[in-house]
Amino acid sequence: MSPTRHRNRRSALRRWVPRGAALAALGIAATGCASNEYTRLGVPEPITEQADRVLALWQGSWVAAFAVGILVWGLIVWTVIFHRKRSEKLPPQVRYNMPIEALYTVLPIVIISVLFYFTARDQSILMETEEKADVNIEVVGFQWSWQFRYLDEKGPAGEPLAVEGIPGEDPTLVIPSGQVVNFKLNSPDVIHSFWIPAFLFKMDVIPGQENEFQVKVKEGVEGEFAGRCAELCGADHSRMLFNVEVVDPADYDDRINELRKEAVEAEEPVTEQEGEPAPSAEPSPEEAGQS
Ligand SMILES: [Cu+2]
């Protein structure tokens, strides 16, 4: 390579690197991202204490992947630039080079072991259900909607208060912030998956096997969040949507009382007709249609 070409390449680099950096900065500024949107690497803002742990695991895995990626890309670029074919002479061959072969084997094992250690550690913490829960909710996933049963709250018939959706009318799950909520998952038909993206967590809902997990929404967090089924479970799988409302504990009690009132009202016409079975506590159309 002639010295002139070398110099040209350098000055081209000098021109384009600042332009690229400026473009990247403009891109970040123009998209008006939230402060931590980029460092979250594509996952939603975590709203539970458990979700912070999932986020840290996610970010840690990306750091490891980037470290490997930068090393590999660096080696490729270095080879492409500085080890081009210069003559017909065969370059030194390093096949069966013992230290390098050992490195190829040992390094991936070390990387996998570290990722495995952190995954196993976090998984066992996330699956703990030992803590005494403030609120116990049974989630029934069925083809094709959800029923949420507030196990600590008895309705007029002595049954737990419940909210049930139908496809197209999404039910709303209400949970308090700053309290431990225990979910028990059941299915009468096929496997579903209970997924609230803001929890950064989902769990299968399996017929004949009660799955369980606990979360604590961070204190002060309130709002509406999306929920969905994350397991292809039949024709109307895509309509298995639900809303999650996180409210503060005082509002939670109000919401439960409203639900109880609705359940009592739903019961009334039936008690007039003797001998009729009590209806299941279904949400009123307004409530089921909330979104
Ligand atoms: Cu489903």
What is the strand and helix layout of this fold?
Blueprint: H1 3-30, H2 49-82, H3 98-126, E1 135-142, E2 145-154, E3 160-164, E4 172-176, E5 180-186, E6 192-196, E7 201-205, E8 211-216, E9 223-229, E10 241-247, H4 249-272, H5 285-288
Parallel strand pairs: 1-5, 4-10
Antiparallel strand pairs: 1-2, 2-3, 5-8, 6-7, 6-9, 9-10
This protein binds copper (II) ion (CU).
Which key features would you list for this structure?
single chain, 291 residues, alpha+beta, 2 domains, 5-stranded mixed sheet, 41% helix, 22% strand, binds copper (II) ion, respiratory chain, copper, translocase
What would you say the CATH architecture of the largest domain is?
A: Sandwich
Share of helical residues: 40-55%
Largest sheet: 5 strands, mixed
- The arrangement of helices and strands along the chain is HHHEEEEEEEEEEHH
Reported by name, the CATH topology of the largest domain is: Immunoglobulin-like
What is the 3D shape?
elongated
Bin the strand percentage: 15-25%
Report mean pLDDT, rounded to a whole number: 85
Structural class: alpha+beta
Question: Could you name the CATH homologous superfamily of the largest domain?
Answer: Cupredoxins -  blue copper proteins
* Ligands bound, unique: copper (II) ion
Strand order of the largest sheet: 3-2-1-5-8
Distance between the termini: 66 Å
Determine the number of helices (DSSP H or I, runs of at least 4 residues): 5
CATH class categorisation of the largest domain: Mainly Beta
Unreliable stretches covering 5 or more consecutive residues = 271-291
Subunit arrangement of the protein: single chain
Number of self-contained structural domains: 2
The number of E-state strands comes to 10
Computed Rg: 28 Å
Keywords: Cell membrane, Copper, Electron transport, Membrane, Metal-binding, Respiratory chain, Signal, Translocase, Transmembrane, Transmembrane helix, Transport
Region (Disordered): 261-291
GO molecular function: copper ion binding; cytochrome-c oxidase activity; oxidoreductase activity
Domain Cytochrome oxidase subunit II copper A binding: 132-258
